[in-house]
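Bug report

Summary: structure tokens for NPC-like allergen differ between web form and batch submission.
Environment: batch mode, default settings.
Steps: 1) Submit the sequence below via batch. 2) Compare with the web form result.

Sequence submitted:
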Amino acid sequence: MNLPVFLLSVFLLVLLTGPTVNGKLVTLCDSPHGTFQSVSILNCKNTDRFCVFKKNTNVSIEVNFVPNYAATSVQTKIIGDVAGVPIPFPVNPKEACGNYGLNCPLTTGDKTQFKMELPIKAAYPAIAVGVTIKLVDESSANLVCLKFNAKITE
């Protein structure tokens, strides 16, 4: 087993999610360079406790946000928390500009849509997991940041 698959397996194996916050699946984290508008995650409702991700499928994720300045580079970061230790999920390509529906520089004040297909590999253990998705600009500040719970199933 290669190192990224091993680290992700450890991450998924150790983390067990808790309940939703205020009955909502998605919670927001600090995003000083943008304003979150909405998120759509395949087969998830905001009232669900977690999203169900089936192995050997791709999960469609769409995030709408409004940047408050014209970012020229946007990095995609997907992060898990294992016993309080953040572990990055391998994203390829990391650069969202020219990928995932983003055209850079972003237009200040315009609604922007990020679209990604997240592969759920057969090697991932079938457990519950917390997920953080960040879109980070060239100054390493969040344009948008959100967290949700997911459960990987057979």
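Above is the batch result. After comparison, the two runs are identical; trailing whitespace caused the diff. The chain has a mean pLDDT of 82. Residues 3-153 form a domain with the Immunoglobulin-like fold (CATH 2.60.40.770).
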